[in-house]
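Changelog note: in this version the structure field was regenerated for every chain. One regenerated record is shown below for reference.
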Amino acid sequence: MKKIVTFLMLSVMAVVANAQVASSKQDVAIFQLSSADRNIPMGLMQGVDSQIQKVFVDLGRFTVLGLNFRLDGLNLQTFVSRLRLLKEQTTAPDKAIQFGETFLTLDEYNKIVGSFLVVIPRVDGVHFTRLANNVRKATIETSFTILKGSDLTPVTGGFFTVRSQGQAQNRQQALEQALAGIVPLLTFEVRKVPQFQISSGLVDVGFDSASMELGQNMGIMLGDEYALEKVVTKDGVPQTEETGLAIVDKVNPQTSRLFIAYGDPFVGQSVHEIPRLGVDLEPYANLVERFTDAGTAYHVALGVKGVLSRGFWLVKPMVGVEVPLILDITNVFWVPFYAYAGVEFYPFRLGRFELATSAALAMGGAYIMVDTSNFLGSNAQPYYLTHLGVRADAKAQFLFSRDAKLAASVGVAAYAGLLDAFVDKSSFFKSSAQISAGLSFVQKF
């Protein structure tokens, strides 16, 4: 009888241990952006502020408590230490708290100490650089300190810096691009902080899919990845073990459907967010057969393409660049290339295995780095637009780890040459039809 009771107790404990309480929205108090540099325009500060607020609101997992207080000219550690002392006092403040020449209102103080987490952003620098062709580059460096609202101590991974850049013909446009660049970088950094990551549990399990609690109400997006977790006991110590990978393929108001890439899910199993930037980077090597009016030739092509994964599932945006190693040229050090943009389609998935097709518009170019033969008449213009074309590929890929895939592909392409006067310099300049086959490695970021 004792053995039966013990077995039942252990079974109940195992179920309780593996059951996951779904994440819920938490209050986050966000300070206004501060800077020790008084020369930074207020308009820029407000622009960065709006981008920061946008990130936390769009993530969907926070109730944002905005503060008007700025730490300009104040030492962050001194400020936090004093707040911590005030919080530890048995009597709460009954009036605004003065810090140098500024005051923290009681309402703001209560938001800080009553929140789950506190976010303090600070501009570390704004820099402008002049590039070639009178292009301006703007760089904005913003640091973030994240504290627990309960005791105002730093959270794990709660200090990071976001460095965004923009390039344009004038300073204002470059600055606007740099401001826009804050959003994806900050979103990724915030999702990397453990306290900000989503945990949930499976409420239904099918053949190759499952449903979890939480959906649009917590900012879940297509392509978000979750680790299947299980609590196991090793040497008498409970430990969380990752047992599988699930990817969001449908988002409902309160729930989300997951595609099971691998693992053996069960109802009640815990799942935990895997923060990713949302880009699959794929370097590849192809053997290409090229058909021109002069006949058939072969070359090797090296390339890399990026596919957006977060926010997409069946159809994903794609961009890439490819360098054909065409060597029928002398006395010139150059880089011929093709650049392309299009979409990838995913008509079939089964566990770790995927079939994908892609279609893209393409252009060809040549960058003349060293010309010792008066190659194109003049070296004053180093870059030349050489082709317009289209390309399509099909590939099979296998997920061999949580973060990487191997793929094999075949493809076709057609390019119309734009520089007929130079076709005697290299066969690269000719119009061509191409077929290819190759291998690639996909790294998920």
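Spot check on this record: Helices lie at 2-18, 42-59, 76-88, 106-114, 171-192. The first strand starts at residue 26 and ends at 30.
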